[in-house]
Amino acid sequence: MLYAASAPSFCVTYPGKLHFPRYITKHSVATRCSVPSSVPENNNGAKVEYTPWLLVGLGNPGNKYHGTRHNVGFEMVDRISKAEGVLMNTIQSKALIGIGSIGEVPILLAKPQTYMNFCGESVGPLAAYYKVPLRHILLVYDEMSLPNGILRLQPKAGHGHHNGVKNVIGHLDGSRAFPRLCIGIGNPPGNMDMKAYLLQRFSSVERKQIDDALDQGVEAVRTLVFNGFNQHVNRFNLGQKYKYHKV
Question: Phi and psi for 109 in degrees, rounded to 5?
Answer without folding.
Answer: -90, 140
